[in-house]
What does this fold into?
Amino acid sequence: MTKIAVAGTGYVGLVAGACFAEVGHYVTCVDIDENKVNLMKSGVSPIYEDGLEVLMQKNYAAGRLEFTTDYKSAYKEADVIFIGVGTPEQPDGSANLSYIATVARQIAETIVKDCLVVVKSTVPVGTNDKVEQFINDFLVNDVRVEVASNPEFLAQGSAVHDTLYAERIIIGTESNWAEEQLKGIYEPFHLPIVSVNRRSAEMIKYAANDFLALKISYMNDIANLCELVGADIQDVAKGMSFDERIGSKFLNAGIGYGGSCFPKDTKALEYMAKQHGYELRTVKAAIDVNNDQKTVLFNKASKRLITFNGLKVAILGLTFKPGTDDLREAASLENVPLLLDQGADIYAYDPIGSMNFSRVFPEGTISRGSITYVEKIDGALEDANVCFIFTEWGDIKAVHPETFEKLMRTPLVYDGRNIFNVTDMRDAGVEYHSIGRSSATREDIKELRNLGLQSVRS
Ligand code: NAD
It folds into this structure.
């Protein structure tokens, strides 16, 4: 079994570290954030991921997993060092490689034996060549260092499962030595390994992520057209999904993609192409569609209501997707400021994400409006004038259509995740607007009321 150090204990580094330990390797997870390290040492995960804490505690107790801020001793001991620090977007769209550079320098100045450095972070094509050069330029001791690429494909919300049962492992190496070491580390996982050169591995990550972003934007584009021509995007997606060339996943229309990967990876690839004098038109289109999609419901609601000023606005779901506490590039972050600027009194519910959201928008008066965090869905819906749904958490999906009608002052719902059936909502007396489907309009509800249907409030 290999002695591994992992730099960075975010979604990628911590999950990788815990899973490497789970299959028998000896792993030291390094982070510069002392609070995080103390939390992890006490058995608490600093991020929410299903099954992660159990894995951390189990392997920590077994002596296969450690956490430290002392990178020097961790890197000195390691045979292989994985880098999983962030590569966030810069204002011009390019990837910020400063965190990678810092770790590279720390490695160069620390290691005392031959070492394989593996970059798991998503980095522009050619970065691994530079990291290898950089480390060798700053090496203090006479040792052999090689850099390999091993991009990560986990999805937040199912990160542990995606790592233990990955569909494939991509390794990008420039020597047999590096290839064999990496294959050895992944051997106990019994997963398909695709071994390519470093630049191809780097490109696979961007090409795969941007393809998924494109798929989402394509469906959103078609959804917007569906509304104009009277088609239903869910029926359209179902019809498409039987075609194996298309596949059945990532066909859900909604208020756009968010998270820490798709938005930045699309922009980074577009930037990379530009630097090489090439315009990546398909990816640019995915970005443009996504930018507009995030506020499509706000714009619809703005047309329907004279103003949000003084209205109680329920928001169900704050995180960029269910199963995670991550808010990066979430639709809620785009829409909440727009609502607050218009004087809305927001009552926000999220089963996991409220704490993180309140760090950006503290409870109380903000701009012309206010925000209150509630612990129950009912607390958000009670007496609300309008409701926006931004995340398809299980308990939000489980709300009965009649609950909106019973609790809200005016049952007016804008659903960015197409959770509910349009007919069910209409039959419950809810004015319901979603993405790429027909709406249950005021007129529909009035007509039902005139017919005196039981389920509609008189
Ligand atoms: P993150 O921001 O959650 O975590 C990064 C961690 O690195 C932080 O805890 C930070 O304190 C730590 N760090 C910074 N500098 C350090 C240093 N010098 N030494 C040790 N630790 C240091 O990031 P993430 O979401 O895990 O993403 C990491 C990389 O993986 C990015 O390139 C991202 O694009 C890629 N990726 C992310 C996902 C995902 O779903 N989050 C999936 C695939 C790939």
